[in-house]
Amino acid sequence: MARKKKRQYGSGEIVAKATGLAIRWREPILMADGTVKYRRRFEMLGPIPQKQAARRLAEKLVECGSPQQQKPNVTFRDHATRWLRDILPAYKFSVRNNYRMTIQKHLIPRFGNTLVSAGTPEVARHLINVPMVQSFITDAREHPYAPHTIHFFHEVLRVVLKSAIQWYRSLESNPAEGVVLPKLVNKRKPWALSPLQGGQLLAKLKDKPRARAAVWLLIVTGIRRGEYLAVRWKNIDEQDAVLKITEAFYRGHLDTPKTEASLREVALDSTALRLLREWKAISPRKAPDDLVFGTRSGQPDRPENLLYRHVFPACDALKIPRATFLTFRRTFSTLSHYNGTPAKDIAESMGHAEVDTQFIYIQTVGEVKRASAEKIGKQLATIGHFSDEKVGYVN
Q1: Does the pLDDT of residue 393 top 50, yes or no?
Q2: Confidence class of residue 388 from pLDDT cuts 50, 70 and 90?
Q3: Are residues 50 and 165 in the same domain?
């Protein structure tokens, strides 16, 4: 059988073979960078009429569509690389560092060749899906990684895939949102200092002006570790008795605080102001732009220095659990709550955008609970005594 004349460029062709007719065409593939590449396609049809072969070729050309109608074939590796370049710089440094490490060390090695966008139905079966993500979570749990770490891996993957849905529109839903995550379990039960423990700890630090001023400030303000490390003398307004939070320190970088709500003014009590004045009087660096708790060279201090040099030894001597920066933050939230401070005021002091967030930090304190029980008991006793006299109740 003679070979048929080649059809017009771009419209494919019908080819005569020994066993019948075949069709071949070029399929346009839209790449992630917007360029178009063409893939040669071939299909053997067998001994069928010419018109039927022409209809089949037309169907294939319609399925291919134009490059403008095509979706690109994009691997997770290509998408993640683009995400790291275009989206990650918009995040704060503390977030960028952890996200980049997770993507490069864990997500790309696992999902690198998996597609997040597919141009044809045949390729679409290789798109990332819920079972793939669930398998990743299971393997991470068996590695074993801590539940908090696995939840972080999942959150990073969810955010990266969200952009893939918006950019390429091949995924109908986010595969990371359909998986079962391990239950979060704290290795150590969260706790807060009771008023007695807090007072004892500060008394132990009475001969250490810097450490005492730092611990007092952390307890009465509830500021974050990075915010404490970035406090400058000019941020302390003695006239209005407030501390202005304008910076935060994280892994060698001074930056704006965590969120917009973190830019705030925190009230200072008279004792905090006095302790800060006492420390300033002997501090080697006291210029307005100097860090209050910086090193002798003027750089931000290492956060563990306060804990290992002063707080932990004092806690060990008192035979109480070792307090950390989170302990001080929980203590502020807990005692403020028990003292009747409105939840909105507590949230603003702690730099939370949502009022409910501060409830995570509130802990039960036995000393405070006993005082509350005593208060309730006295109220009941007073009411009972009043009733006996006026109403004549008999015991």
Answers
A1: no
A2: very low
A3: no
φ, ψ (nearest 5 deg) of residue 38: -115, 135
The Cα 33–Cα 31 span in angstroms is 5
Relative to beta strand 20-30, strand 36-46 is antiparallel
CA distance 349 to 358: 10
CA 143/CA 163 separation, integer angstroms? 28
Paired with 41 in beta bridges are 25
Domain assignment present for residue 8? The answer is no
| Alpha-carbon gap, residue 214 to 206, rounded angstroms | 12
Q: Are residues 162 and 256 in the same domain?
A: no
| CATH, residue 140 | 1.10.150.130
Q: Nearest 5°: CA angle at 43, between 37 and 48?
A: 145
Cα 107 from Cα 130, distance rounded (Å): 15
**Same domain as 135, residue 273:** no
Same-domain status, 131 and 211: no
Domain residues for 220? 195-363
pTM reported for the whole predicted model = 0.65
Which pLDDT tens digit goes with each residue over 164-176?
999 988 898 999 9
Amino acid type, 156: V
**Residues listed for the chain:** 395
